[in-house]
Design a protein that fits this description.
With about 575 residues, the chain is α/β, with parallel strands linked by helices. Helices cover about 65% and strands about 5% of the residues. The chain has 2 domains: about 1-415, no CATH class; about 425-440 and about 450-570, 2-Layer Sandwich (Transcription Regulator spoIIAA), CATH 3.30.750. The chain is elongated.
């Protein structure tokens, strides 16, 4: 038991180090250095656009990135702040302040660890694709909307937080555009899009930030151009080790922040497992989804104490890690250390980065997140796919992510139940049952393909799970037929499980049949369903001798019962 637990929840780092050598270390070192440098502009941009200071973004990438690589279930996953959280984090900071965000993040971390330890990692993967695309496209549009002010250098005191009012203010204030800022922003976007044509290794965002920072610095020093806002104009970056800060938990704030924490946890789980799955496809490795969630949980519990924001697996940085040769979690640990050194020794230089350039970086992040081609092809599939896609997309954009995730998950459950209900069938047979091509048929009786049923015996077969959606369907079939046989055989060989509602309906069916003097025989009950049945009143109502393991036994039992009923009838006459 304990050995299994250790095996199921062992960080990938430990198994990776068993076969570790100098060659692997050199590859990890190179990749870690590059990913660390790539992560810097993104961490700053995500920190600022989430409504907190830029160094909080860097601290998150350092602390959470280290924990996720140290404890995670993937060999190449890089963790840190991501674009997906910008919208939700900004909303929490607006409403509850930085302290509220810290409480929500710790709660989300606890939820993630619970999901991981309950081994529900595989369940998260079953969230329908249209819902995931609806969220991500909605988040992408929202991120793009938040960057317009900085991209064009508009002078707006306070940008409204909701989507429609935000664009209203942009259109009213567009005349306040700063042409220098707009040129820097648009040029940054062009550089990011053109870079892959000549450099696969170094990302465009880094080149754009270095070039534009130098350009703006020269413009300010030599040409006296003011008015291009930089990070230093808005924030003070502290080049020091993060301090541990206490978080004041109380029951009111926990209650108020629970929905937000749930959103962070679900979003973090979806994004990190999606990223790890994409990485598996490239590297050919297989991640441990439950351990990955435990690591994400631990990172989100610890990071807020250092002033950090929510973190998860980042697809772009993970892919950069793979493309630069990183193959073990050591690369992720090195990326965190690189970021720490940059914060301590070069942190002061970041104040010269123009805000318009960071906005350009985020516009490209939003474009890559939007998955508009996928969105377009999904919208053409079926009406239900389109409805789910547009619902989650619209809710994310117009309301907020918490509502979108709750409604999206409800939609996913309803669609799943609808499909299950459609896939479970109830069929009825009288006179004979054809059992050719059935595994249940005895090895010696292969030639006997048809079982003849005594008069007054009906066989009902349920194919599929007998749960609350089906239980009512089964009742309807019974009522529609309106027959009054002497014996009903209910074949359950194709019922993998039965839930409490299914059991309740079966109990009621058995009671009603008993009142109508109809005998019930259950056939082909597997061990799992049998265990559930014995926790209910069904065996007492139908009698244990009427719960049979296969159809032959059930038909034999029905024949015996039928003869007994005939005898009783004759005696009465």
């Amino acid at each position: 038991m304990l050995n299994n637990l250790i095996k199921d929840f062992q960080p990938t780092l430990f198994s990776s180090l068993k076969k570790y050598n100098k060659e692997t270390f050199m590859a990890d070192l190179m990749s870690g250095l590059i990913v660390g440098i790539v992560a810097l502009p993104l961490a700053i941009a995500f920190g600022i656009s989430s409504g907190v200071s830029p160094e909080k973004g860097i601290i998150t990438a350092i602390v959470a990135g280290f924990i996720i690589s140290f404890l995670g279930g993937s060999t190449v996953q890089i963790g840190g702040p991501t674009g997906a959280f910008i919208v939700i984090v900004y909303g929490i900071v607006e409403k509850f302040g930085v302290q509220g965000l810290a409480i929500a993040t710790v709660m989300a971390g606890i939820m993630l660890m619970v999901i991981g330890f309950l081994k529900l990692g595989s369940v998260i993967k079953f969230i329908p694709y249209p819902i995931v695309v609806g969220f991500t496209s909605g988040i992408a549009l929202t991120i793009f909307s938040t960057q317009i002010k900085d991209l064009f250098g508009l002078s707006i005191e306070k940008v409204p937080s909701d989507f429609i009012n935000k664009w209203g203010v942009y259109f009213q204030q567009f005349s306040t555009i700063n042409w220098w800022a707009a040129a820097i922003g648009i040029l940054s976007i062009v550089i990011i899009f053109l870079t892959p044509k000549f450099s696969k290794k170094i990302p465009g965002s880094l080149i754009a930030i270095i070039l534009m920072t130098i350009v703006v610095y020269l413009l300010k020093q030599n040409l006296g151009v003011s008015g291009i806002e930089t990070i230093g104009d808005r924030f003070q970056i502290k080049s020091q080790l993060p301090q541990v800060e206490p978080i004041g938990f109380n029951i009111e704030s926990i209650r108020a922040l629970f929905p937000s924490a749930f959103t962070i946890a679900i979003l973090g789980a979806i994004e990190s497992l999606l990223s790890a799955t994409v990485a598996d496809g490239v590297t050919g490795a297989k991640h441990n989804s439950n351990m990955e969630l435990v690591a994400q949980g631990a990172a989100n519990i610890i990071t807020p104490f250092f002033g950090g924001i929510p973190a998860t697996g980042a697809i772009a940085r993970t892919m950069t890690n793979i493309n630069n040769g990183g193959r073990t979690p050591v690369a992720g640990l090195i990326h965190s250390v690189v970021l720490l050194f940059i914060l301590l020794f070069l942190g002061d230089l970041t104040k010269h980065i123009p805000m318009a350039c960071l906005a350009g970086v985020l516009v490209v992040v939003a474009y890559n997140m939007s998955e508009w081609r996928t969105f377009r092809s999904l919208a053409k599939q079926s009406k239900s796919t389109m409805a789910v896609l547009l619902t989650t997309f619209s809710l994310t954009v117009i309301f907020d992510l918490t509502i979108a995730i709750e409604v999206g998950l409800l939609l996913a459950i309803f669609l799943f139940l609808k499909r299950l209900t459609e896939s479970t069938e109830v069929t009825v047979a009288t006179g004979e049952v054809n059992i050719s091509n059935e595994a249940e048929s005895h090895a010696g009786d292969v030639q006997e393909e048809v079982l003849h049923l005594p008069k007054g015996v009906e066989v009902y077969e349920i194919s599929g799970p007998f749960f609350f959606g089906i239980a009512n369907k089964f009742d309807d079939v019974m009522r529609e037929l309106g027959n009054h046989p002497n014996i009903r055989i209910i074949r359950m060989r194709k019922v993998p499980f039965i839930d409490s509602t299914g059991l309740n309906n079966l109990e009621n069916l058995c009671k009603n049949s008993q009142n109508e003097k109809i005998h019930i025989i259950l056939s082909g009950v597997n061990d799992k369903v049998r265990a559930s049945l014995y926790k209910s009143k069904v065996p007492n109502i139908v009698g244990e001798e009427n719960i049979c393991s296969h159809i032959h036994a059930a038909v034999e039992r029905a024949t015996v019962l039928s003869e007994e009923l005939e005898e009783r009838k004759h005696r009465h006459h």
